[in-house]
Amino acid sequence: MESKLPEKPATAPPAGGKAPRRRAPGERQEAILKAALDVFSEHGFAAARLDDVASRAGVAKGTLYLYFPDKETLFEHMLQGVAAPALAQLARLASADTVPPAAAIAALLAFFETEVIGTPREKVIRLIVSEGARFPRLAKFYYEEVIAKGLAAVRTIAARENHNNFNAEAISRFPQLIFAPLLLSIVWRGTFQQFEPLDVSALIAAHKEILLHGHGERNP
Amino acid sequence: MESKLPEKPATAPPAGGKAPRRRAPGERQEAILKAALDVFSEHGFAAARLDDVASRAGVAKGTLYLYFPDKETLFEHMLQGVAAPALAQLARLASADTVPPAAAIAALLAFFETEVIGTPREKVIRLIVSEGARFPRLAKFYYEEVIAKGLAAVRTIAARENHNNFNAEAISRFPQLIFAPLLLSIVWRGTFQQFEPLDVSALIAAHKEILLHGHGERNP
Amino acid sequence: MESKLPEKPATAPPAGGKAPRRRAPGERQEAILKAALDVFSEHGFAAARLDDVASRAGVAKGTLYLYFPDKETLFEHMLQGVAAPALAQLARLASADTVPPAAAIAALLAFFETEVIGTPREKVIRLIVSEGARFPRLAKFYYEEVIAKGLAAVRTIAARENHNNFNAEAISRFPQLIFAPLLLSIVWRGTFQQFEPLDVSALIAAHKEILLHGHGERNP
Amino acid sequence: MESKLPEKPATAPPAGGKAPRRRAPGERQEAILKAALDVFSEHGFAAARLDDVASRAGVAKGTLYLYFPDKETLFEHMLQGVAAPALAQLARLASADTVPPAAAIAALLAFFETEVIGTPREKVIRLIVSEGARFPRLAKFYYEEVIAKGLAAVRTIAARENHNNFNAEAISRFPQLIFAPLLLSIVWRGTFQQFEPLDVSALIAAHKEILLHGHGERNP
DNA sequence: CATGAATGAGTCTTCATTCAT
DNA sequence: TATGAATGAAGACTCATTCAT
After folding, report:
1. DSSP structural state of residue C146
2. For C137, which of B1, B2, B5 is closest by C-beta distance?
3. Which of B54, B69, B84 is the last residue of a domain?
4. What is the pTM of this model?
5. DSSP type of residue B19
6. Which residue is nearest to nucleotide F8 (CA to C1')?
7. What is the pLDDT of residues C185-215, one digit of tens each?
8. For residue range D188-205, what is the model confidence (pLDDT) as tens digits?
9. How many other C-beta atoms can be found within 10 angstroms of the C-beta atom of residue A220?
């Protein structure tokens, strides 16, 4: 599992900051992508400067072009790269046939809480939300690889619900409703956090309460 | 005695104003703001060109600067201008003391469905979501004038709930949960609509079902 | 004599700053020229804004064009206007046949000290020095109307010198040498005054001492 | 697995660098400064176009910004750069203790005649005179590094004068008087040269005659 | 005569992209 | 591979000039 990128690559950098340490192949690409995520997140696609990406990645500007043909491609590949590793997990969450539906939903929300909020993936989602409209290929990729799969997973879960522990039928029609508070959390944290901090954990708990209206357990 | 200098050898004038169509006062400002909303929505703040705003508003580039000192100010004023008219209505929705809470919530959602989706306000919210992080003044304005008031309104409504028709307590703690599907609708329509159109009406209906879990009436 | 323009025209302005007081004909032109001198002096020709000239003159921008066809012409006419009144005096100084040469030179220097330094004429000269190269018509006007006449006056004076109270022959060949310290004073005051104030009076006195090398009286 | 986005539909690249002729390091900076002096001299700071500077230097417009952050800084650095080399010589002229004062003054004037008039330094001085008032940092630099040192040098020379070959006392109080005709020469050549050419050599000779009033030798 | 809103050419500055080294 | 100096198209903003009122 590749998430939780360490702040610095494992190999300790030499003392002098200028020493042109030889890096493992792929390490540079990694550094570039990480820097790109930071810079694009901070300024948005159009206002981000490749100069900044390069210097934050510790490479020369021209080096970027050895890995990516242009700014747009760097942006899109970067956003794919971060998404890919999460997809497997997401799929696994949905496919556990034996887990009771309520618990499966809870697991989904917990996954979001721990594996998205506060991680690079949060920034990625924010960028999709901000820039997706201007990058149809990117939006398509996310729609197909993440969104559609996520929605399908929820539908699968809901389909297993035979009683009415929660409103499975409504959820089945609009699995988006499961994710809406998660999206809201990300947007809030990017926009209003400084005016009113949001306790995502508690919000998700409240979300579960409403979804399961007392039939499920309270979150710990 | 005003001794005459030899005549200046007539050089072509560097610039000059052509006859402008005089319009009603305020009409131009209106046109500029409308054009700005369109252009900023389409490209985002950084990538929007004031040239485009001007030509779409039917004015010269310089004219923009008669109304707004710079791009940023135009952007912020535009986004505040569109918000203002909605605030009164929002306030009214919350203050109707006699309306049953469930109906008040329903009215709020209906308001959103008819007065936001498909109107300029939808674009405005999308821009707040996309650019808010880079415009703290703007985010603050929206937080204080729109968000905080909206949340307070919901809390007021929830406080009137004495039975447990819906999970008033959870809503009271996180009124955001009422709005989350609305935010999702806006984001979805801006990003994934072309891949999977979203029936906002039906989504809101499902949202209500979950919120009221059968205690309220189904929407028609 | 028209120099020493009062800061405000004699007629007291009405209380409200906005009242469109009717002015004497020519008064507006006067105001514009005065404002132009200030603004051009402060910023130089290219960087001066006609907007500033207009507002400082208390007229609308378009009004400038009722009096002058363009910026350049305003500039040149303004610089002529201020020069003209001084020319008569300058001529008088030179033509007093009975005055001893040394005294005539002293009178010339005194004239400069009192009628140029600290008056609008100082600014005018500074503008000629700064911008003359870019305004050949202006330079020509000044050369013919002011410089040539001034030099001729000095030559006339020097020609009356029969003894050798001062080096009349050198002065006759280069009357500019009489004026050089005056030019220096103006340039200095415009450029270095804030770092080392220049006592123009004393400098002129020293200049006289050197010119007359002890044969003339010391200035008081 | 790095899932491939569909190929970006190749749009024309917005810009791109053509093969530059690699030159010796510093050569470009040199060329820019030289071009800047020409262009600023010709038009003054405000009216000078960086486009012209660039093309006269044989570089692209953007290249200017690799060397100087903005127009103003280019202007100031340029004017300081040209001054620096002359300062050493100036200092040497003043420190020759054995040279008789009259000869030292003569050497100073000769230096000006050959090392300033007709050289880039003449343009520099003209720019200081024209623009100094608008560039206090620049004026301060010139005052401290050139003017003050020049005046001090003359004072040092004058202090060595024990007889009264020339009016050492007046010169000591106002060393500016030594330089005034030099300033006048520069201003004249920039402004009136086309109407009446000035023989700077002869003017300086006359200046010396007056300063030394016959006690010194005539210039060759 | 006077106004000042409107115009649009012109200029500084930025930054994605290229390529000689 | 890697570099970073160089390029030049593009865009924000200014301001002399015009003209409907």
Report:
1. I
2. B5
3. B69
4. 0.88
5. P
6. D15
7. 999 999 999 999 999 999 999 999 998 874 4
8. 999 999 999 999 999 999
9. 5
